[in-house]
């Protein structure tokens, strides 16, 4: 897929079999061919991007999905219509949401989320359906996207801290409809200590000198420090993320994030409240 900035290629090379997403290759091939032809930068986001990033360190996906999310940088709705027409030729049909396409052949749904010049106040308006798509954070996060090789293809994906920011924003927009966002963020935290061990030793050694020693708390704080980049880029993003965290850190018993994480980790809410607090501490860390 076309890139809008120069990247250093990831040295790892994943396989579709390792990714374990049904018909991902077939769907990705369709998207890639359309975007190459129409020359629009396109990015793999969502749980598939997280799975691909974690695979670089041998971490296998534990949640299958038949939904694949892409973000495409375009200027106007005419360009989006061209993409939609090209996908329909390849057997993808528009369904309920105007940015969702479904393949009855592959039984796969693709969300194709437009951003870029098409936005107005972080929103894309689909006039024919009177439906708005909120894309706050897409520009800032996808500026840092990195290419990952998957067999003969290249997928541009955001770094894990960027995925956390996008998922927190998406969850805060519709918390009742997006419980998987919190699960995905927790999964990143769970693996982040091992993923970033060398960086922790080199740049965040102060997080290791704490009692009691806890890898998850260290991971959450370092993840917060690395996520701070996106808050620096945008006051709107910063305000949204900090408001979400502050509202969930007023009272452990009323924290939706801490409650969900406690269920997922099978632990008490006081611990996951502390975990969320460590992430916020990282976001506000000053070097």
How many helical elements?
Answer: 12
Radius of gyration: 19 Å
**What's the helix-strand series?**
EHHEHEHEEEEEHEEHHHHHHH
Number of strands: 10
What helical percentage do the residues reach?
Answer: 40-55%
Shape: globular
Describe this structure in words.
With 287 residues, this protein is of the alpha+beta class. It has 12 helices and 10 strands. The protein has 2 domains: 13-158, 2-Layer Sandwich (Beta Polymerase, domain 2); 172-283, no CATH class. The protein has helices at 16-19, 24-38, 46-55, 77-89, 138-142, 160-173, 179-195, 197-203, 215-233, 235-248, 256-265, 269-283; strands at residues 13-14, 42-45, 67-74, 92-94, 100-103, 108-116, 123-126, 131-134, 146-150, 153-157. A hairpin with a 2-residue loop joins strand 9 (146-150) and strand 10 (153-157). The protein is globular and about 60 Å long. The two termini are 36 Å apart. 41% of the residues are buried.
In short:
The protein has helices at 16-19, 24-38, 46-55, 77-89, 138-142, 160-173, 179-195, 197-203, 215-233, 235-248, 256-265, 269-283, and strands at residues 13-14, 42-45, 67-74, 92-94, 100-103, 108-116, 123-126, 131-134, 146-150, 153-157. With 287 residues, it is an alpha+beta fold. It has 2 domains: 13-158, Beta Polymerase, domain 2 (2-Layer Sandwich), CATH 3.30.460; 172-283, no CATH class.
């Amino acid at each position: 897929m076309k890139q809008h900035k120069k990247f250093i290629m990831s040295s790892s090379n994943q396989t579709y079999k390792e990714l374990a997403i049904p018909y991902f290759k077939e769907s990705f091939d369709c998207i890639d061919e359309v975007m190459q032809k129409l020359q629009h930068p396109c990015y793999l986001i969502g749980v598939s991007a997280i799975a691909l990033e974690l695979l670089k360190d041998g971490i296998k996906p534990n949640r299958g999905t038949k939904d694949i999310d892409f973000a495409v940088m375009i200027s106007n709705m005419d360009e989006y219509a061209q993409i939609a027409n090209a996908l329909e030729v390849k057997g993808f049909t528009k369904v309920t949401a105007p940015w969702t396409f479904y393949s009855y052949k592959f039984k796969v749904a693709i969300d194709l989320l437009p951003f870029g010049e098409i936005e107005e106040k972080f929103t894309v308006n689909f006039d024919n359906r009177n439906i708005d798509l909120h894309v706050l954070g897409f520009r800032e996060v996808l500026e840092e996207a990195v290419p990952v090789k998957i067999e003969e293809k290249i997928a541009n994906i955001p770094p894990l801290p960027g995925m956390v920011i996008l998922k927190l924003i998406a969850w805060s927009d519709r918390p009742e409809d997006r419980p998987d966002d919190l699960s995905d963020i927790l999964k990143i935290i769970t693996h982040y200590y091992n993923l970033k061990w060398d960086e922790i030793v080199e740049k965040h050694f102060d997080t290791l000198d704490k009692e009691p020693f806890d890898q998850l708390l260290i991971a959450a704080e370092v993840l917060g420090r690395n996520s701070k980049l996106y808050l620096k880029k945008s006051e709107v993003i910063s305000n949204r993320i900090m408001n979400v965290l502050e509202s969930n850190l007023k009272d452990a018993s009323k924290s939706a994030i801490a409650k969900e994480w406690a269920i997922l980790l099978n632990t008490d809410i006081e611990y996951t409240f502390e975990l969320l607090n460590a992430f916020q501490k990282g976001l506000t860390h000053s070097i």
